[in-house]
């Protein structure tokens, strides 16, 4: 047998062994349970983030079945936050935007979109203070702007898709609105589906009397955000500060589905500790 023939046989054997190794590894991966990651906040009766939770304080269900918590730790993945301003051109949320940006400075990448009446990106994701200052100036009083509810639903859908494209592991959307949304709309389900797929939480701050439909009304509960009604003339900044603090104080919870169990969008997180509110999603991506 020549040296070249021996070398060819050796290479074929090596290739065959490598192929067997790949098949074995893929089977092990396919047989493993699905790892799940969920971000959530925990606040006390005053809305202050609680930082001493343990797995023993919590119970997790997915698809109605109990799941064992693998890990629970403070979230360290950078936060991507999108602010959506629907103020009718009044500048009513300018101070609140400033306080949110001040609270999250150097701790989150923030993007800002305003309805003019069509959504206009005022600021792309940044931590830069100078960009923050310019963005705040652009959402002051701008003259009367008339919007319709479908525009804000479409904006939630659009920024949710952007967050997914951005592959944001930890994301939040905060809507401030004086216009609200229609109670019945064909635009609602696509927006909620995009929100779920993004994994982002949706928080909504709205003036008293503003009508909320499925997106702004149900979205916060489904995604683990908050819904806060404010009265006209009452400072809104402290509300945005609390929302920002809750997001910055999030936990990361992980668990693993048993072998052969398919992921389910229905999620439930509960606690035995009194006086504690968990801001956790009830719908999560099912793949």
Summarize, please.
The chain has 287 residues and is α/β, with parallel strands linked by helices. It contains seven helices and 13 strands.
Structure notes:
By secondary structure, the protein is an alpha/beta fold. It folds into three domains: 1-31; 33-75 and 250-279, no CATH class; 79-239, von Willebrand factor, type A domain (Rossmann fold, 3-Layer(aba) Sandwich). The protein has helices at residues 3-31, 94-104, 129-137, 149-165, 188-198, 214-223, 237-248, and strands at 35-43, 58-62, 65-67, 69-74, 79-86, 108-115, 119-126, 171-177, 201-207, 227-230, 251-256, 267-271, 277-279. Helix 2 (94-104) links the parallel strand 5 and strand 6. It is globular, with a radius of gyration of 23 Å.
Q: Which key phrases capture this entry?
A:
287 residues; 3 domains; four-stranded antiparallel sheet; globular; disordered N terminus
């Amino acid at each position: 047998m020549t040296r070249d023939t021996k070398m060819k046989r050796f290479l074929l054997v090596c290739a065959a062994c490598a192929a067997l190794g790949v098949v074995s590894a893929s089977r092990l991966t396919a047989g493993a349970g699905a790892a799940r990651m969920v971000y959530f906040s925990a606040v006390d009766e005053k809305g202050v983030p609680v930082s001493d939770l343990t797995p023993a304080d919590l119970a997790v269900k997915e698809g109605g079945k109990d799941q064992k918590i693998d890990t629970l730790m403070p979230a360290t993945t950078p936060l991507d936050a999108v602010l959506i301003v629907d103020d009718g051109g009044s500048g009513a949320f300018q101070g609140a935007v400033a306080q949110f940006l001040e609270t999250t400075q150097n701790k989150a990448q923030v993007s800002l979109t305003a309805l003019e009446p069509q959504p206009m990106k005022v600021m792309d994701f940044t931590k830069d203070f100078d960009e923050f200052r310019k963005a705040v100036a652009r959402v002051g009083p701008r003259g009367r702007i008339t919007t319709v509810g479908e525009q804000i639903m479409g904006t939630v859908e659009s920024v949710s898709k952007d967050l997914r494209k951005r592959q944001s592991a930890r994301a939040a959307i905060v809507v401030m609105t004086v216009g609200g949304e229609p109670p019945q709309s064909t635009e609602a389900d696509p927006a909620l589906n995009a929100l779920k797929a993004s994994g982002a939480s949706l928080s909504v701050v709205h003036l008293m009397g503003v009508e909320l439909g499925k997106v702004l009304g149900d979205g916060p509960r489904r995604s683990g955000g908050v819904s806060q009604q404010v009265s006209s003339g009452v400072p809104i900044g402290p509300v945005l500060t609390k929302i920002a603090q809750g997001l910055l104080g999030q936990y990361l919870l992980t668990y693993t589905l048993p072998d052969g169990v398919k992921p389910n969008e229905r999620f439930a997180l509960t606690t035995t500790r009194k006086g504690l509110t968990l801001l956790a999603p009830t719908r999560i991506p099912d793949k």
